[in-house]
Amino acid sequence: MRLLQQNAPACEAVRGDVNEFLRADTRAFELVSVDPPPFAKRKRDVSAACRAYKDLNLRVFARVADGAHVLTFSCSHHVEPELFRKVVFSAAQDAGREVQVLAVLGAPPDHPVSLRHPQGEYLKGLLLRVSGGPR
After folding, report:
1. Annotated catalytic residue 50
2. Residue 96 contacts residue 56 (beta carbons within 8 Å)
3. Phi/psi at 57 (nearest 5 deg)?
4. What pTM does this model have?
């Protein structure tokens, strides 16, 4: 764990289109949170959603520093956790980055899932450490 010291750089929050931002800004980031809206609202949207998740994560992997941490999420209940993980790893491979899973994430305890409504277990996430330089 890295603690912020006095005179350390502050956190910057940017509101806008992430694709435009990643194309325009040239900095390498140490921590990125990828939390897009649901890309697959219907089962037939899964293929397009996977392409969108891959493209977004690929852009992020291309821009993070060696040793960076990435939190990446999907809130599309039609995209299964294993599929999401494969999509994220494929993006890392295409970006030429080594990725380690530090934690598998989901909804917090105050968001219980009813056995009668399994679609309520829609949030999936990964805490990753990214190493190696971008291609």
Report:
1. no
2. no
3. -65, -35
4. 0.85
State which residues form the domain around 89.
28-110+118-131
Six-digit token string for 123: 């949030």
pLDDT band at 2; cut points 50, 70, 90: very low
Which is the catalytic residue, given 22, 52, 71, 75? 75
Flag whether 98 is in a domain: yes
Q: Does residue 94 sit within a domain?
A: yes
Do residues 132 and 76 lie in contact, with contact meaning Cβ atoms separated by under 8 Å? no
Bridge partners of 68, per DSSP, are: 130
Question: What phi and psi, each to the nearest 5 degrees, are found at residue 24?
Answer: -85, -35
Give the count of domains, the chain.
1
- Residue 78 falls within a domain, yes or no? yes
pLDDT digit string, tens, across residues 48-102: 999 999 999 999 999 999 999 999 999 998 999 999 999 999 999 999 999 999 9
Has residue 5 been placed in a domain? no
